[in-house]
Design brief:
Elements (H helix, E strand, L loop, with lengths): L9 H24 L5 E3 L4 E3 L4 H21 L2 H23 L5 H27 L13
Antiparallel strand pairs: 1-2
Helix pairs in contact: 1-2, 1-3, 2-4, 3-4
Length: about 140
């Protein structure tokens, strides 16, 4: 059984899978989990938050890096299972602790589908980039 693209021992492969699971969960904890306050704008009388645009952009850019490295190291199906699952589990740990209505379960389904779709799209882009022809991309000159 192989989880990674190379022939490392199974324990090393499992450690790499665990590393990518931790990195994916870290996207939630590092960018979103700590921010739980809503902001009230007195001038417009509107509530916003708890997340700001910069958090979403930062998480997306870091996610691109995590998915890119996961594509290089893990098999596609392994990455597609591990990355969204670990992000969703991280989300559930904070959402279920703060919600007494039980609607966190609906959110869990939405987060799971959304992260799976996003991860699949980013892995597909990584695969397309990985299969792009290598060589001189500039204009060719005949002599």
């Amino acid at each position: 059984m192989r989880l990674t693209r190379d022939r490392r021992p199974l324990a090393h492969q499992a450690a790499l899978v665990a590393l990518f699971a931790a990195l994916s969960a870290g996207l939630w904890f590092g960018w979103f989990a700590w921010d739980t306050e809503y902001q009230y704008n007195v001038a417009t009388a509107e509530m916003s938050g708890p997340y700001a645009v910069w958090q979403g952009v930062g998480a997306f850019l870091c996610g691109v890096v995590v998915v890119g490295f996961a594509y290089r190291v893990l098999y596609f199906p392994v990455a597609l299972l591990v990355l969204p699952a670990s992000f969703t589990i991280a989300w559930v740990t904070t959402a279920s602790a703060q919600d007494s209505s039980g609607l966190w379960a609906v959110g869990m389904i939405l987060v799971a589908f959304g992260t799976t779709a996003g991860t699949a799209m980013m892995l597909g882009v990584a695969a397309a980039i990985g299969k792009a022809p290598r060589g001189n991309w500039g204009p060719t000159r005949r002599q």
